[in-house]
Amino acid sequence: MMNGKKWLIGLLIAAVFAVLLVRYLDRVPKRHYCDFRVYHHAAQNVLAGNDIYYRDTMAITPFKYSPFFAFFFCPLGVLPIKAAAAVYFTLNVLMAVLLFRLSVDIMGVSDRWRAALPGPSQSRAPLLLYGLCALFMSRFVLLVWDSGQVTILMGVLVLAALILLEKKKELPAGAFLAAAILVKYTPAIFIPYLLIRRQFKAVGWTLAFLVFWLMLPALAVGFHKELSYLSSWIPSIIETSLDRWSYMDTKNQSLFSFAIRFFSECGYAINILHLTFDQGKMLGYGLAAFLYSLVLFPPFGKARDPRIDYALLFAFLPLFNPNGWLLNFVSLAVPYVFLVAYLIDIKGKDWFIAACVGIAFASTTLMAQDIVGNARQNQGELFSNVTIGALLLVTALLTLKFRRPRPLVT
């Protein structure tokens, strides 16, 4: 009977995946392969020895990632773009499963439930956890899959680094964290936190592997070409990602864009203060620095819980990204796993935390175009609905971090 159930579940998963893949391959050529086209083109340029930062065609968005990233994608650059997109879509689906699994591992949920829950409850709790988190994150996961983006890959690399770090394996932890930083630079926010926790070996190995990974493409393109890539990399980010319009775009749901729209005169007529653009941007960076300091500070009267700190830092990955496009919010998987597991543990008897999670879900996933229509989605983005949802999760996590321990009932 059990084998029959496993076969049925396996067939169901295969059927769902096949439907998703067919849907993707039907959509993606019409949308010109979205972000994946940029990665594929850069990989082909590396294989041909061309400049990856020179925009040789206006049909393709400028490449703004590290040379290591382009080198990493070279195996897919050998394939025609449709085949390469299908392969990467499959990898992205597998990595999404791994993202949730590693999130559960780093939060210590499985071990805690095995020790605390009886048999039937133990089997139902993971299903409830995965089901709710998949529902809450569905919008962002689908956005990453449809665009062929690398945000899930970045999250998996960071989680792998943290799990290895918890096992005192600093060298591979540094290798994974460095690779994540070279996929998207925002995981660098983990480095000051590791320094505060006196994880000096891990930071040292991260810095060493940053150098190693950056020089690795020289094996394919030569030392001088790699130096040329490196000299063009940072200027390309500044030119294409940190411009004024990127900050002001309503689809940008970063904390910085939130501050600019609400507190400076940038043309949207929703501002409650009359700061200049630069002042609004600096206010956003000041808010980010304040929130980040709350992660660095230990709680009062109790031991630091690294799980809460990790969840907060994952929430900050999209909020502190100057280009906080919606697909970057797939990093909210980690705070959702922690908070949903906490609510399952206490049977939902923390109304403030439950309200934060519920409203965050309504403000983010339920405001998708397929649910509310294009006009309301755009209006929600104007008012930074996804930013607000992420900040509600941050509020819930900070509440749990700094809340005084409840006295034992005797």
Task: Give the gist of this structure.
This protein has 410 residues and is an all-alpha fold. The protein is built from 22 helices and no strands. It is globular and about 60 Å long.
Share of β-strand residues: under 5%
Order of helices and strands: HHHHHHHHHHHHHHHHHHHHHH
Shape: globular
What distance lies between the first and last C-alpha atoms, to the nearest angstrom?
Answer: 46 Å
Topology at a glance:
Blueprint: H1 2-27, H2 34-48, H3 67-72, H4 74-77, H5 81-106, H6 109-116, H7 119-147, H8 151-166, H9 170-183, H10 190-196, H11 200-215, H12 218-221, H13 223-241, H14 244-248, H15 255-263, H16 277-296, H17 306-319, H18 333-345, H19 351-364, H20 369-372, H21 374-382, H22 385-402
Protein described:
The protein is mainly alpha-helical and 410 residues long. It contains 22 helices and no strands. α5 runs parallel beside α8. The longest helix has 29 residues, at 119-147.
What attributes characterize this protein structure?
410 residues, 0% strand, globular, mainly alpha, single chain, 72% helix
